[in-house]
Amino acid sequence: MKIGAPNEIFPGEDRVAMTPTSAKDLQKLGYECLIETGAGQSAGFSDAAYEAAGVEVVKTAADLWMAAEIVVKVRPPSMDETKLMREGQTLISFFYPSQNKELMEAANAQGSTVIAMDMVPRISRAQKMDALSSMANIAGYRAVIEAGNNFGRFFTGQVTAAGKVPPAKVLVVGAGVAGLAAIGTATSLGAITYAFDVRPEVAEQVESMGAQFVFLDFEEDQADGAATGGYAPVSSPEFAAAQLAKFREIAPDIDIVITTALIPGRDAPELWTKDMVEAMKPGSVIIDLAAERGGNCKLTVMDEKIVTDNGVTIVGYTDFPSRMAAQSSTLYSNNIRHMMTDLTPEKDGQTSHNMEDDVIRGATATHNGEITFPPPPPKIAAIAAQPKKPAPKELTPEEKRDAETAAFKAQTKNQVTLIVVGAAVLLAIGLVAPASFMQHFIVFVLSVFIGFQVIWGVAHSLHTPLMAVTNAISSIIILGAVTQIGSGSFLVVILAALAVFMTGINIFGGFLVTRRMLAMFQKS
After folding, report:
1. HSE-up (13 A, CA, CB side) for residue 207
2. Which of 274, 378, 417, 497 lies 20 to 30 Å from 400 when distance is taken between CA atoms?
3. Is residue 153 flagged as an active site residue?
4. Among 14, 25, 130, 288, the one annotated catalytic
């Protein structure tokens, strides 16, 4: 079968769904690859590069649609492009079937199969095909770069002879894939980064990346992301009001706001209102990644950059992935290639559209003359729901004192019991053993007792607990060996010398290892 990628006709779209590298991988699956002339030019892939990879370059889009059994695209097809589709043909692209019902019906009327890359379920097995995450990752990174381009200061703080520069304060609203990419980029550039999300389970992810999670003083439990396929759920009116109140509180102190909040199948929620923009300092920047769905900021203008009366720059571009076309095309073509791998289990260049497969079924919008959207929910949750941990109870001073007293009494009881049992055992042995044996045996028992107390009393502030205990044991052994090394017996001298040598290696080696461990945490 032949798989082809036409030129993207959407204005300003520079990405391409097939690169020379991905074409080689598709050929290993048994497919012949086609590309329309100039389709990869804007992304930095020349026709000559495709020809060198064994791809046939086709002159027109009509010729490509006619020749290819599988067509791969980035943007959804236009209504004119659906007229080029035919029965039995497969289209793989972003499609957004919930927002493009008319387009879906037109494709189905042509008898084509449509696989929507935006509908790939968010389960572990499908991560390699998750094109939304691939593009969101690039959009989050590019949003910070765009913010830096429009921000008049450094991200990181500096102290120079010319003066002191405070670090920029960045707020990322929405800690999904795009949000986490923006957090990582802003933090690596030295900014003080804050993040907010309605899903409580992402707080640890945010903090692990060096950002501070903005918590709300709100009692209502929020839905876990697993209930909505890994996406943010719709908030209650009370929670939304508390969220806006928190944003109004911190808006005057924030230099850069990056909003990424989207809910599948809905317009973008309004999270940054006009009065919040007016409260921001002159020179501040807002990057609205939800501009294509109406925007999270009230003043966002789609595909435009505006400056408000108080000097706040609001960027509403919708083509952030396309602004990094080479990188975006590489990742997206890899997503397509992984989808084709699942569609070609025999690697014989023939697709097997298995509707029992959760990933293929979830991404299929039309098949065999039927509209199969919406798909059934995936059998596996996207994110494992985390049980809420109960807060530890604060003890009163009286309760703490009672607990310490009870612990001391229990410890004393155990020690007295051990001493009584030990004395009884020694007495029983003394009744049958000779006096010369008992003299040495009692010394041995006392040595064991004292050694035990010494070993377990060692503080391991600069050691691991295991290293502290082994060094303590070695110290006792080496002391005993030193006292016996002057013995008159040649065998005892040899054994004592070996003990000193081996325990010395253990002790000095332990300190050398500790020194190397501490050096790992030193800046120089």
Report:
1. 8
2. 417
3. no
4. 130
| pLDDT single digits (tens) 240-261 | 888 899 999 999 999 999 999 8
Let me know the angle formed at the C-alpha of 124 by 130 and 183, rounded to the nearest 5 degrees: 65
Query: CA 1 → CA 69, 344, 428, distances in Å?
Result: 6, 11, 91
The set of residues, in sequence order, having a beta carbon less than 8 Å from that of 520 and lying 6+ positions away, is none
pLDDT on residue 226: 47
Distances (CA, A) of 496 to 380, 493, 504, 507, 510: 64, 5, 12, 16, 21
Is 194 annotated as catalytic? Answer: no
Tell me, rounded to whole angstroms, the distance of Cα 446 from its chain centroid: 56
Whole-angstrom CA distances from 27 to 32, 56, 344, 419 are 6, 12, 12, 79
Catalytic hit among 127, 352, 386, 411? 127
Kindly indicate the confidence band of residue 474, based on its pLDDT and cuts at 50, 70 and 90.
confident
Q: Is 127 one of the annotated active-site residues of the chain?
A: yes
Can you read off the two tokens belonging to residue 393?
């109870």
Name the residue with tokens 């325990």. 503
Instruction: Report pLDDT for 232.
Output: 57
Could you tell me which residues come within 8 angstroms of residue 93 by beta carbon, excluding any fewer than 6 positions away? 17, 71, 72, 73, 74, 75, 76, 77, 115, 116, 117
Local structure of 190: helix, strand or coil: coil
What pTM was computed for the model? Answer: 0.71
Q: What pLDDT does 370 receive?
A: 94
Q: Which of 91-105, 231-245, 415-429 is least confident?
A: 231-245
Q: Which residue has the tokens 């709100």?
A: 218
Quick check: 495 and 463 in contact, CB under 8 A?
no
Which of these is catalytic: 231, 236, 248, 484? Answer: 231
Tokens of 514: 């500790």
Output the CA torsion 414→419→421→427 (10° steps).
Answer: 180
- Residues 176 and 125: their CA atoms lie apart, in Å, by 19
Amino acid at 321: P
Residues 324 and 186: their CA atoms lie apart, in Å, by 18
Neighbours of 271 (CB within 10 A): 23
Q: How far apart are CA 409 and CA 30, in angstroms?
A: 77
pLDDT-based confidence at 141, cuts 50/70/90? Answer: very high
Is 293 among the catalytic positions?
Answer: no
Residue reference for tokens 């996207």: 382
For residue 170, list its beta bridge partners: 193, 256
Q: How far apart are CA 364 and CA 374, in angstroms?
A: 9
Determine contact, residues 33/55, Cβ cutoff 8 Å: yes
322 is catalytic: no
Please tell me which residue in 42, 112, 133, 322 is annotated as part of the active site: 133
The tens digit of pLDDT for each residue in 450-470 reads 777 766 666 655 555 666 667
- Tell me how far apart the alpha carbons of residues 375 and 382 are, in angstroms, rounded to a whole number: 15
Order of strands across the sheet that contains 370-371: 56-58, 32-36, 2-5, 70-72, 90-93, 113-116, 364-367, 370-371
